[in-house]
Amino acid sequence: MTEIEPAGAATDSPARSPSAGEVHPGHEDPPNTFTEHLAVIARRLYTVARTEEPVSGVDLDIALSARRGLLDLLSTVHTDLTGIGATTAPAHPEDLEIHPVAALGQALRRHPRPPGHLSPTDVALARPTGPAGEAWQRIARHTLLARHIWSTGLGDAPVDPARR
Q: How far is CA 124 from CA 27, 48, 86, 118, in A?
């Protein structure tokens, strides 16, 4: 089990370029598997939770994009694993007790996804103004990569660098 690193730990070392990808403790390779991307997302969410400064401007658009991507990833994985598709039935509190897995899927699909002003490419190229913005940018990047790996059926096999 990987331990979550506090903000400013070795993975955020200024010695490496932010575009080089995340570096995991113990090896120098950027993440190649779905599981590794999820670990990066978890560490960056920890950074966001620990950052006390408000997010505004371009960082807010980055955060909204990352949040939409993360909700889409979770919805896709939930649907694929459970086979429970979208429903139009209204949610009821007793559904949580009777059908908790279906209620989770419905909550993920119904959770608001406010639009941002940046496309995924613009999010990747944006220059965040603070640590929370940088963390949200990495969440957006790794969510997109994890969803691609999941959707293409690559599972936890490393992505061939020539196919990236």
A: 24, 17, 30, 9
Domain regions of the chain by residue span:
30-163
Q: What is the pLDDT along the chain (164 residues), one digit of tens a residue?
A: 444 444 444 344 333 334 344 554 444 468 889 999 999 999 999 999 998 888 888 999 999 999 999 999 999 999 888 888 777 677 778 878 888 888 888 888 888 888 878 888 999 999 999 999 999 999 999 999 999 999 887 665 555 555 54
Residue type, 137: Q
Residues 85, 88, 92, 98: is their CA dihedral positive or negative?
Answer: negative
Query: Quick one: DSSP state of residue 3?
Result: P
Q: What is the dihedral of CA 119, 120, 122, 128, to 10 degrees?
A: 120
Dist CA 116 CA 68 (whole Å): 9
CA 123 → CA 25, 101, 114, distances in Å?
26, 32, 15
